[in-house]
Amino acid sequence: MTYKPKFSLEVFPPKRTSPIGTIYDTLDGLRGLDPDFISVTYGTGKSSDRTATARIANTIRSEYGIKTVAHLTARYLDYDDVDEALDMFDKAGVSGVLALRGDVIESQNAAGVFNHASDLVSYIRSKRPDLPILGACYPEKHPEAATLQEDIDNLKRKVDAGVTYLISQLFYNNDDFLHFRDLARKAGINVPIEAGVMPVVNANQVKRMTKMCSSKMSEPVLAMIERWGSNPEVLQDAGSIFASQQINDLVAEGVDGIHLYTMNRPGVTRSIWSNVKPLFTKIV
Ligand code: FAD
């Protein structure tokens, strides 16, 4: 049987305070990489720009010829909002929607319609029976779940509601992902699971992101930051090498795919891709 893992990238819309053109710089910088798809994140909360994801997805598909997946966070949306988003995604020609609950914002009241991502998955499935629906998963468990097993039981509900593909949260210890994958398979979760890899690009970013995602910084990542934290250029190179090695080991373990969080940094993404490309393009 042949094995060909998927390779996908994630970009985010520029902040409202940044010029919209910065996303073109990111996408131009990614030209020629030919990933299986690029996913575009969706802002959560009442003040986020609800058109940005569809606009960028449309550009990626029409101008760069790459399949796109639109993220959608629904905690602060009602049925009409979701219908509107799905119409925008249809027009943008997306190949799938990553259905998310979104993080809790303490200062805002939830709309109370989509309490969990699985509610959004069921709704999208009822409205778009043929649309691929992706879901998020957490190798080190979602921070709100009491145990990894509880989180996996909830994940099974989400998959049963109609998720056809999973993408994982970032992690730095591959054993965490492999353990999670074993438990997910034991729980009867049989859809593909892409492993989320976020390169270390600078010390503050990795501290902020691991805190935000409740992911652990592994010993090698801590050592890298300790050694090169005050030399951002070398840390970035070390981060690319570390991510490439992480991907190499994951592919050797037969993962379904790798989802690279680009952080809108095409230089880092290209350098990782140049290391790992043969693992994805040579069919064995
Ligand atoms: P859920 O699947 O709803 O899970 C949230 C919590 O509820 C978990 O603890 C789970 O165990 C529990 N739970 C789930 N279902 C049930 C149930 N039926 N009963 C009881 N408990 C339940 N955030 C953004 O704002 N924008 C993005 O674009 C974005 N993209 C992401 C992409 C990926 C690949 C990942 C991994 C995360 C992304 N996030 C994004 C972050 C995400 O929104 C947060 O992690 C959020 O807190 C949870 O979203 P979810 O869809 O996983 O929620």
From TrEMBL:
Q: In which pathway does it act?
A: One-carbon metabolism; tetrahydrofolate interconversion; Amino-acid biosynthesis; L-methionine biosynthesis via de novo pathway
Entry's Pfam families?
A: MTHFR (PF02219)
Which of UniProt's keywords are assigned here?
Answer: Amino-acid biosynthesis, FAD, Flavoprotein, Methionine biosynthesis, NAD, Oxidoreductase
GO biological process terms on file: methionine biosynthetic process; tetrahydrofolate interconversion
**Reaction it catalyzes:** (6S)-5-methyl-5,6,7,8-tetrahydrofolate + NAD(+) = (6R)-5,10-methylene-5,6,7,8-tetrahydrofolate + NADH + H(+)
* GO CC aspect terms: cytosol
The answer to whether the entry has keyword Flavoprotein is yes
**EC annotation?**
1.5.1.54
Family to which this protein belongs: Belongs to the methylenetetrahydrofolate reductase family.
Question: What protein name does the entry list?
Answer: Methylenetetrahydrofolate reductase
